[in-house]
Amino acid sequence: MKHKSKAGKARAGAARGKQTKASAPAAPKQASVASPPPLSSIREQIDDIDQRIHDLLNERARWAQQVGLSKRGEGLSTADFYKPEREAQVLRKAIERNQGPLRNEEIVRLFREIMSACLAQQEPLKIAFLGPEGTFSQQAVLKHFGHSVRALPLPAISEVFEEVQAGHADFGVVPIENSTEGTVNHTLDMFLNSPLKICGEIELRIRQHLLGKMRGLQKIARVCSHPQSLAQCRQWLDEHLPNIERVPVTSNAEAARRARDEEGTAAIAGEAAAEVYGLSVLVPEIEDTADNTTRFLVIGRKLFSASGQDKTTLLVSAGDTQSPGALHRLLGPLAANSITMTRIESRPSRKRKWDYVFFIDVIGHAEQPPLQTALEQLKEASTLFRVLGSYPAAVL
Questions:
Q1: What is the model's pLDDT at position 250?
Q2: Maximum distance among all alpha carbons in the chain?
Q3: How far apart are the C-alpha atoms of 174 and 166, rounded to whole Å?
Q4: Which residues are registered as beta bridge partners of 53?
Q5: Structural domain spans, the chain
Q6: Residue limits of the Prephenate dehydratase domain (predicted)?
Q7: What pTM was computed for the model?
């Protein structure tokens, strides 16, 4: 047997070492993560953006002032400055171009406040609503018109109509229906004799809270609220406060006032009422349905142009509503022209017993086909026909 020389062994070992190193997997490289810029640099960027936003806001306000000067030169009033169809178009465009991270609801709220502040450069709108302060009606006013208006709380829906009709308020906001409890009949009945028009709609998510000064539910002797709110929380009250007196009052704000002033009284109302009357939220969101929403109408003295996504509200009657096919004759032109009806309510006409009128909501603007054609035919089939309003559908 032949033995390898020491030199040969050394060469063989070196070769094996090279093979081992070549076949071993390469060590993983650490990913290079760019370190964030210093906080001071980020703040400088935000300050620069804020400056540009500020400059643009003031530029927009200056152009709004020019609009006001132009309209005043034409002899127009403050209410003529407000264009609900234009505002609806601005908000829809804002939603279309929104890429986040801000949600659509936040974008709409920001742009509403910008438009509200710019419009107030001309003169703040005066908006009447069903008060007092702290009601959901006030929240609806601020959601729709922004915080740069003069909100005028009134004690009754009829007084809201009267103030707008007399010109003491530019517009009014009144509740019309709730998704849980249905129609506010008093509002519908006001349109029977009022010349006012519907200029817009507001959909407000209603969150009912149990408010009070006490520390626990065991200290509650009675619960006050508007009848609609009591009804919207019926199941919760039955389960948690079954033997407690329920006291209906004229508004949730009145309930909050009583909860502030009376020992043992709790109220069902919104967060705004808690802030205004200094109450604690004992139990939040006690409404029976998670999507509890109230729809409000904006009332004014004239009709507005189309916005592109509109609703129309009609007041119609077929005369003898007891005759066979009376309602079919009224609805026929809508069906024939493929008009979508979203709501219909009957109310006593107050002319004679068992005589009714119908309030109908449809999709479209009264001055645009195919609804325009349908309304011409409907007018011929009706003994009473009025367009109460064509207005932008609620934007969020």
A1: 87
A2: 132
A3: 17
A4: none
A5: 56-119, 126-205, 209-291, 304-392
A6: 126-301
A7: 0.84
